[in-house]
Amino acid sequence: MSGMADAFFRLIGTHGVARCGELTTPHGIVRTPAFMPVGTQATVKGIRPEEVRACGTDIVLGNTYHLMLRPGAERIAALGGLHRFMNWPYPILTDSGGFQVMSLAQLRKVAPSGVTFRSHLDGALVELTPERAIEIQGLLGADIAMQLDECTKLPASRADLDRAMRLSLAWAERSKLAFAGATTGGALFGIVQGGDDTRLRRESAQALVDFGFDGYAIGGLAVGEPQDTMLRVVEETTALLPAGKPRYLMGVGTPEDILEAVARGVDMFDCVMPTRNGRHGVAFTRYGPVNLKNARHADDPRPLDPEAGDRGYSRAYLHHLVKANEMLGAILLSQANICYYQSLMQDIRAAIAAGEFEDFRRGTLEDWSQGDIAPMTPLRPIPARAERAK
Fold this sequence. Notes:
This protein is α/β, with parallel strands linked by helices. Helices cover about 40% and strands about 20% of the residues. The chain has an eight-stranded parallel sheet. The protein has a three-stranded antiparallel sheet with strand order 1-2-3.
């Protein structure tokens, strides 16, 4: 059932627009700003749950669409729920399947009632409605459930964005009604859509706030638009959302994207980037990304970063593992990346609490410029809230 709003999110401190706080869920506390490693198939790829936790992770993400196909939500429920199934006794947020409405466009048909998919596993016809998405997330035992929505790639016409936003609003209302009638606990988030159109985003946000959700996500970004566009939409949208509710930027992103979005009032993030980049030989460090495929690392005895939990592995060894396609290389780099992301979030929270976020932000961007891939972009100005409201 819903209605967790006041007890669910506690704002602890702010610095400018950046916020730090806590979410209280049935399976524990989530410190915000929070990064959620993606466990689409009930696993964070290549890392054991205890290692994910040891990196400082409070919450992971699972996916309704993939888990309903395999092994099945009813099967997971019969086995004790997703927490027990994947040996993760801590908070879990489940995405509703809305991203797959976009990413599996060749396999689905969208209608006002819901989405019909051809399973990417065996071609079987599967229907996902707002009510079924909520039911599945209840069977999984999610601490935070998401409404079903339609995510649209950018660039897109205003007509397409308008249609998808209005359909997502209709599904939001149905999702909320279904959630209110469920017997499971937890929280439900609405998802703001509207692409890169300011007026559509405003209409979506205001309608969702009127519906009254436990938290609000910003969806439909990091789907093809320039970073400047993404940050503009984030900045405009967070200003429309209640200060007393958590704000979640879905599918984002790079360390820089996270830092910039925190500066614009975002509390929660998820992305496959730490593990996906780890599987492809790229490590994130305090001094920027490091491509272990590069020959310059072949004779380098230094660790990636003495503070990142990888003291026993030299860059030379990691380079060797990556070049030899050994699975240990992907495992070690994925773990190092998850640990780096969580270390970054811890430092962000501490800087906000101390009233030093802008200094931290500036210094972090300067440190990242020392990596061996592309330098991070220059510091972006953050307008004051009063200026942003004009």
